[in-house]
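Hello again, I could really use a second opinion on something today. I've been staring at a protein lately and its backbone has me curious. Can you walk me through what the tokens say about the fold? Take your time with it, there's no hurry, and the full record follows here:
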Amino acid sequence: MKKIISALALSCILFTETTTAQLNGIIPQPVQIKFATTEGHFILDPQTLLLADSLINPANFLNEYLLNYYGFNLKKNSKGTKHGISLSIDKHINTKEGQYTLSVNKQDVKITGNSAQAVFYGVQSLIQLLPAEKTSAKSLKLPAVNIVDYPRFAYRGMHLDVSRHFFDVAFIKKYIDYLALHKLNNFHWHLTDDQGWRIEIKKHPKLTAISAWRNGTIIGLYPGTGNDGQRYGGYYTQEDVKEVIRYAADRYINVIPEIDVPAHSMAVLAAYPEFGTEPTKKYEVAQTWGIFNRLNNVLQPTEQTFKFLEEVLTEVITLFPSPYIHIGGDEASKIWWKKSSVSQKIMKDNNLKDESALQSYFIHRIEKIVNSKGKTIIGWDEILDGGLAPNAIVMSWRGEKGGISAAKQKHKVIMTPENMMYFNHSQFLKDDSLTAARYVPLKTVYDYDPVPTALTVSEAKYIWGAQGNLWSEYISNPAKLNYMLFPRLDALSEVLWSPKEKRNYKDFQNRLKTQFKRYDLMKINYSKRYLTNLYP
């Protein structure tokens, strides 16, 4: 009998990882988490001291969150304290990349990591132990817990298209905070496309004077029911870009700019038609969506064009500390190169057998420019067409085929297949608002595994990670963007961070209930249909 009682007592102290999920709302699910109910609670209040050494960014993020949502922050202290929160680096305990440990008991809270970035991730888990609802109390209870945690994938990304619809710097910062709260570490900033150029290039001012503005936008789902006739646009100055990069760096997020070539260039050609295959044509910034096979939007692969692109990329690379520059490379209609005598002569002069080889030639030339400045290119999987550039990283969006091919060629791969990772598509069979035409429900996102079964163990090592994409054709304001993003961002974060064997959709749904309360606290818009057990 005593043995039975002892066993019951022990089970009360240390919950199994299956049952602990009912007590916490931590997303993404940690590698190990154990609650100790006999240890009581840590009381967090304005008198609590914060021992952070030189870990300024994790400490500041925690204090800003406390101030924003609970009305107080903590006093920083450089000396040890018996009742407080300590942040520190310990590479001996935390041996894996990005690993942290978080322990909470009645006396103190300790977060250690193998880097400042890992400590920052520990702070995100600590935040999710705080009450998820508004409280007037000036003291908060934290449950006693021990967490050991580290990410599954090195690359954990989220994309945002600001060409179709523009979002100001204030919102971009909020977006970066959303990524930080979910332990993502890369922000893919889609800055250029047919519908607008969004970054200041001082050597080519017409890119913001002309290319950043369109004279109307289609109404409704493509091909649309009309055009609103309203001038629309905007761009980020180079000072804006620096501000965003600084803000992201404080949250350990790398900002990857995308300058999309050789297609998706109608906005460029509206300002500089001489770089197109029809240099005498009057181009306009696109007012509609879709792939422009019938409208010329490809750049002519001349020395004049490459000089222009080198000047653009030089300014971009100077601005962005990211080791990676995304150069697009997708959806280039070959018919315009076929029709162009100039392109055909370039093919002949360079012994290129077809237009796919010309596409490869174009990407190789851009890669040389980027590599010469110490950076690496990322491109959509079309950069495989005609032969992959030597050092390129492939972002596989047309399913997994491109990613599998690149991994077999020993290139890094970021998986982002449209039917699973595109959050501009509907999350319900009948959605609450206008979206792109496909159906990508929450469970589809959650169930995705970025490592294809077609790869061997050695080939699978080239799967660097995955990314969610948010294209903005039908997303014109922050409220709509949040509606499309949440809670699919939560599912993405767990796909990228948590061990595959720890993922369980029903358990994830239980934890989402707490997360929705947190979104209410943070005034983040999401579909309330998720609150009525309509989990697709």
About this structure: The mean pLDDT is 92. Residues 101 and 148 are 5 Å apart (CA to CA). The longest helix spans residues 355-372.
